[in-house]
Amino acid sequence: MKQIELKHPEYIRITHNKEESYGGSQLWFDEDTWMSREYKVHKWGCGLIALGDLFLYIGRNDRNYRTNAIGLIHDYGAYISWEDYRKYILYINSRFAQIIPGSGMNGLMLASAVRHYCMKFRLQMTIAWKAFMDDQQMIRVIHKMLNEDLPVILAIGPNTPLVFRGRGIPFYRLEKNGEFILSGYQHVHSHFVTVTGMVGLKRRKVMLKISSWGKEFYIDYQEYREYIEKEGDRFTSSLLYLSKAGKKLF
After folding, report:
1. Tens digits of per-residue pLDDT, 44-74?
2. Cβ atoms within 10 A of the Cβ of 54, count?
3. Where are the alpha helices (H) located in the chain, listed in sequence order?
4. DSSP per residue, 133-170
């Protein structure tokens, strides 16, 4: 088993309801008040959470990318409090990443939000919504970004053109014995996740380690690519490409 991970494999740890998470979750936000800011985050905020966690990871682990936004997180220890994380995400939402009711954010909006953030805080970064890649191009980009210690925001786009068809891909969990088993999520689509690692198995099988809904999951890369070709498309199901200062677009 060959594995590639971010340099800090713990990623983003948040304490919520006395449990320790793996990244943030939109589901933590209050949905009681219809069309409030928190309601929109809860319903359509997966892209916002992925962006917020991206900025947090880079800022906490690279001094050159630490910003006033990251300063909203008062605890620089291993775990972030839910109260700090909530304030931080709502700040990112209000200043950089607007949510469209009913659809959330798309890839171009994610790229625009990162550009806005980098311009605001004078950060050097190559940014692109890198669509229309084949399976080999995409896996090379993921590999390259992980080697640069950059989390990869990956979109499992909608069914195209039948957006209400409801077909998707399964999420897996990794057991202590090294076996991948199906999770309770077996038809995921129209959702952003964050890739934090890759696991190479026999017969060129690749599993992508991801953060989603505050938990650690895995997706089968080949199943993801088959979903793109059969049910989705290469524009909405793609990734946000980033490279730090002085790097060229891959």
Report:
1. 999 999 999 999 999 999 999 999 999 999 8
2. 24
3. 37-44, 46-61, 82-95, 107-120, 135-147, 221-230
4. --HHHHHHHHHHHHHTT--EEEEE---SS-TTS---B-
Match domain 2-244 to its CATH number in 1.10.260, 3.30.70, 3.90.70, 2.50.20: 3.90.70
pLDDT above 90: residue 95: yes
For the purposes of burial, counting CB atoms within 10 Å of the CB of 172, is it exposed (0-12), middle (13-18) or buried (19 or more)? buried
> How do the residues of the chain divide into helix, strand and coil, expressed in percent and rounded to 5?
35, 25, 40
Please choose, from the candidates 83, 58, 82, the residue with its C-alpha nearest in 3D space to the C-alpha of residue 70: 58
Helix, strand, or coil here: 182? Answer: strand
Whole-prediction pTM value?
0.95
Closest CA relative to residue 227, chosen from 157, 137, 154, 133 = 157
Q: How many CA atoms lie within 13 A of 226 on its CB side?
A: 9
- CA–CA separation, 127 and 111 (whole Å): 6
